[in-house]
Amino acid sequence: MNALVIVAHPNLADSPTQQFLKQGAKLTTAKWHYLDPLQEFSPATERQLLVEAERIILQFPLYWYGAPAILKKWQEQILSTNFVQQKLKNKQLGIVVNTGLPEKDFHSGSKVGFSVEQLLAPYQALAHQAHMHWLNPLTIYQFQYLTDTQQMQLLMDYQRYLVQPYPDTLKTRSRWYLKKMQDLSFRDEQSSLIQNTLKQTTAELENNLSILAMIKAGEDEVNG
Amino acid sequence: MNALVIVAHPNLADSPTQQFLKQGAKLTTAKWHYLDPLQEFSPATERQLLVEAERIILQFPLYWYGAPAILKKWQEQILSTNFVQQKLKNKQLGIVVNTGLPEKDFHSGSKVGFSVEQLLAPYQALAHQAHMHWLNPLTIYQFQYLTDTQQMQLLMDYQRYLVQPYPDTLKTRSRWYLKKMQDLSFRDEQSSLIQNTLKQTTAELENNLSILAMIKAGEDEVNG
């Protein structure tokens, strides 16, 4: 998966969330592309990056319920209706967004009054206009309060969001986890026990997936 | 009505829509405040303007289904959670937005897939968080295709949006129109005939409003 992560943040070094995600992105083949507020954009370079990517991820903290000014500036300088419709068609567009408020505040009747997905409507509209595939946003609520286990889960979810094949189904997800486990174990030549266990687990999971596929096919026939 | 119109546009002189609205704003007591992209903001000055206003209007063209970068930059530099909750509470927040696409494109299933109101959710969330009164946005679709009559109607609607007392009811609206007509006629000392007609119309309308109010009160009793 040729993925491009466009990171919009006024001060990357000061953001524990972004530093954490940067480490996560390094574990994948995704290209990390930071929009440096101190530099001018080169439209030719930016457009080339977009054209080469199969999946485009916009990553930013939620500022006043939307993207930071730097991303809007980038959109205004780089994108045009013709460009997005001709060059971005059929690519995938995803959003990785982090918030300072907890999840419970993002509902009608709560503090914010809208879900994060509702607030990101402008980006879904962009995907819609460009005939891109819209990936459900990956929202990180209050990173600083995540437990170690939650951080590890986020690390996995984030990597999957960046590079797991589209669409996100039980099958693509399971295959991705298996591949990841194999990659990790092969790095450590001494872990033959882990490798053997993983191979067995892999076989079992592949088998379960086949069974699930058959059950699903049967259901489709019944329902069809 | 002490209204502040914050205008965000990268190049005001090149926008027929903004030039038209500027003329409209001049016919009211609203303060026109242009966010000059070539100048730095003075947080103290900007905050003072906000504190003094009873109604705050954000006015901009829809760029990539949201506000231009200059407005986002202003929000990031001027607003804070404490400031909006402590200083903007109970004020009114409105949006005047113009689009290059026609109204028919702003529906689910259409080109954009969202209504303008849905795309402006981040601003409604801001109003919600700040405990401000949210004014339904005034949307101007494809200004360049408006007929003379439609432009005149827009000029009236825009002035009402800027300074007509809150909330927008039949009564406040009628009173505003009457006031406007009287103001216009008093400018021309020779138009005594028009003045007399207007006075008569005013009396009739006031009378009708009283009758409407009585009918409404009666309905409320029946329904109450």
Automatic annotation (TrEMBL), chains A, B:
UniProt-listed InterPro entries: Flavodoxin_fold (IPR003680), Flavoprotein-like_sf (IPR029039), KefG/KefF (IPR046980)
Record's keyword terms, sorted: Oxidoreductase
Gene3D superfamilies, sorted: 3.40.50.360
The organism's place on the tree of life at top rank: Bacteria
A Pfam family assignment: Flavodoxin_2
Keyword Oxidoreductase: yes
Domain (Flavodoxin-like fold) ranges: 1-152
Protein name per the record: NAD(P)H-dependent oxidoreductase
Species for this entry: Bombilactobacillus thymidiniphilus
